[in-house]
Design goal:
Elements: E1 6-12, H1 47-69, E2 99-106, H2 114-135, E3 140-142, E4 146-148, E5 151-155, E6 157-161, H3 166-170, H4 174-189, E7 196-202, E8 211-218, E9 235-239, H5 251-262, H6 323-326, E10 336-338, E11 359-361, E12 371-372, E13 377-380, E14 390-397, E15 409-412, E16 418-428, E17 433-443, H7 461-472, H8 476-483, E18 488-494, E19 499-507, E20 510-519, E21 524-530, H9 533-540, E22 543-553, E23 558-567
Parallel strand pairs: 2-6, 2-7, 7-9, 12-17
Antiparallel strand pairs: 1-8, 3-10, 4-5, 8-9, 11-13, 13-15, 14-16, 16-17, 18-21, 19-20, 19-22, 22-23
Helix pairs in contact: 1-2
InterPro entries: Ig-like_fold (IPR013783), PKD/Chitinase_dom (IPR022409), PKD_dom (IPR000601), PKD_dom_sf (IPR035986)
Domain PKD: 360-449
Organism: Svornostia abyssi
């Protein structure tokens, strides 16, 4: 399946200087983006201060609700605890669901500042999950790749020494810089198992152009679990100057902004879209004047929010028929997890298992209640449901522990009559499983009355005569070869009625001999054509010889047939 096109968005601390993109096509469409198309974001230096005020308020609410509902992100407050890793730490992996992999990367000619950045990265991850948890009404939050030797509450940070110098990255424009970093980091993530997006803290790569970060986003506003944003494999990057641990000032806002782009925000069909990947109702993590065609800025929210008004890209329970009900809602992303299950086992902490459903269908897709031996039927499990998405299907026909299929639908044939149990097990993206069993009644096909034999076919005398003529000419080649050394040629014929049979032999348009005879009905008779010495000599020279037979019945019907044979020279 071809990979959906991407939009590249850039976060700036200063006024954007790159050209805006064209507007998105209609709802549910995936439009192509010109290679390298980018747009400058303007994230004010003080954005984090406003965001942290919202964070403090969210945490007070969470603490109050957590006591009653057990809601928590699972991430520990800093300092970070673990061992610096240059490869994925699978030994302490806490879960296997879709997740955000955090990478600290530094150029080959700059010092490794992992010891300085690790605590800040842990705090950023905790703060992002708390902010999203608050916006989700304490129900869901971001899932990071977590698990170190110190436990599941710590981010598994990949530390990578880049193959190029700082100046090699700084001299590139933002889009090209991201592409180069992605290429250089690809070997470090190539063997990772599972669906992931990547958040990169790219130290000492800022070009001094005001670009704080950059990310890719699928342009797809479809509301269902098949939205391209659930495919993963996207990159979000924050650029540092190599000195300030806060990178370019509003580090928390930048990384949350870019990660949210990876999750599918903001689609151009959103009510307050700027038409260039952002929104226009400030103050919002994803909103600012980016120079887009509809960037008519308003300020309905006094403080920085995660979707100001909850109507452009994130709402935990949108009203029926509203934009986020009928279009892509980041709340539905498989990179979010139920509160309490983001660290540790995915199957616990408030993640209900999916519901398995089986419908039996015939060859034209109609629902049926029973099957017939030897007749293909389809076991349809596409009606199975989950609060997010069903990720896996397993069919066990006969309930004997075997797996006959792993797609949503399985077409099969039951070889014998009886009742056959069919078990369907479905799993969600966190590994939680749901199972159902359907007892399929199978009966033998009803015996149909034998079809009467077709009535005997009668043929006319004319057709019978034509068949007899063709039969007489069937072995003509051997007969003519014999005539090359004989004084006569015999043609055997069985007439369907009394009549007169005539024969003519020609070679290259010259008649070699003729004969006529009256024949009786139903008797096999022979008509003999006598050949002169001259005729035999000509036959001996070879060539195209034609024998024509004509039968004239007593009823007046005349039938003719002829056949030509190429004879070799004797």
């Amino acid at each position: 399946m071809p990979r959906p096109p991407l939009l590249v968005v850039v976060a700036l601390l200063l006024v954007g200087v790159l050209p805006p993109l064209a507007a998105t096509a209609g709802s549910g469409k995936v439009r192509p983006i010109l290679p390298g198309a980018t747009h400058g974001d303007r994230i004010p230096d003080g954005a984090d201060r406003s965001l942290r005020r919202q964070l403090a308020k969210s945490r007070r609410t969470r603490r109050a609700k957590a006591r009653a509902a057990g809601a928590a992100t699972g991430l520990k407050d800093g300092p970070w605890c673990g061992v610096e890793q240059s490869a994925d730490d699978t030994a302490y992996q806490a879960h296997t669901g879709p997740r955000v992999k955090v990478i600290y990367a530094y150029p080959s000619d700059r010092p490794n500042r992992f010891a300085t950045m690790r605590d800040l990265i842990q705090d950023d991850a905790r703060d992002m999950t708390d902010l999203v948890l608050g916006a989700a009404g304490q129900t869901k939050t971001l899932r990071f790749d977590v698990g170190t030797k110190c436990g599941a509450g710590y981010v598994d940070i990949l530390s990578v020494r880049l193959p190029r110098t700082s100046s090699a990255y700084r001299q590139l424009a933002a889009g090209s810089r991201m592409n180069q970093l992605r290429t250089d980091l690809s070997p470090s993530v190539a063997t990772m198992i599972g669906k992931r997006n990547y958040l990169v803290y790219a130290d000492a790569t800022s070009a001094g152009d005001g670009v704080a970060g950059i990310a890719t986003v699928y342009v797809d506003d479809r509301p269902g679990s098949n939205n391209a944003a659930n495919n993963g494999g996207l990159w979000a990057m924050a650029f540092g100057d190599g000195n300030d641990p806060n990178f370019l000032g509003s580090r928390l806002t930048t990384v949350l902004h870019e990660v949210t782009h990876n999750l599918g925000a903001v689609q151009d069909s959103a009510p307050h879209s700027t038409g260039a990947g952002h929104c226009s109702d400030e103050s919002d993590v994803m909103c600012y004047d980016d120079g887009g065609p509809t960037a008519n800025m308003t300020h309905p929210c006094a403080q920085q929010a995660y979707d100001c008004g909850a109507d452009d890209y994130f709402h935990p329970a949108p009203a029926t028929g509203s934009y986020l009900d009928t279009h892509w809602n980041v709340y539905r992303s498989t990179f979010l997890c139920p509160a309490g299950s983001c660290a540790g086992a995915d199957v616990g902490g408030g993640n209900p298992p999916p519901t398995a459903s089986i419908v039996l269908r015939n060859a034209i897709g109609q629902g049926i209640v029973a099957a017939t031996t030897g007749v293909p039927v389809t076991l349809d499990g596409s009606g199975s449901s989950d609060e997010e998405a069903v990720a896996e299907y397993q069919w066990d026909v006969g309930a004997d522990g075997s797996v006959e299929g792993r797609d949503a639908r399985l077409t099969t044939v039951f070889p014998s009559a009886g009742t056959v149990p069919v078990r369907l097990t479905v799993r969600d993206v966190y590994g939680a499983a749901g199972t159902t069993t359907f007892a399929v009644p199978v009966s033998a096909p009803a015996l149909a009355a034998p079809a009467p034999p077709p009535p005997p076919r009668t043929i006319s005398r004319r057709e019978a005569a034509a068949r007899a003529l063709r039969s007489s000419l069937g072995s003509l080649r051997d007969t003519l070869r014999a005539a090359q050394s004989s004084a006569k040629l015999g043609v055997r014929f069985t007439a369907p009625q009394r009549g007169r049979l005539e024969a003519r032999i020609t070679l290259a348009g010259r008649t070699l001999g003729t004969a006529r005879r009256t024949v009786r009905a139903g008797r096999r008779e022979q008509l003999t054509v006598k050949l002169s010495r001259t005729a035999r000599r000509r036959l001996g020279q070879g060539g195209k010889v034609t024998v024509r037979l004509v039968f004239r019945g007593t009823d007046g019907a005349t039938v003719a047939a002829s056949r030509s044979v190429q004879l070799p020279r004797r």
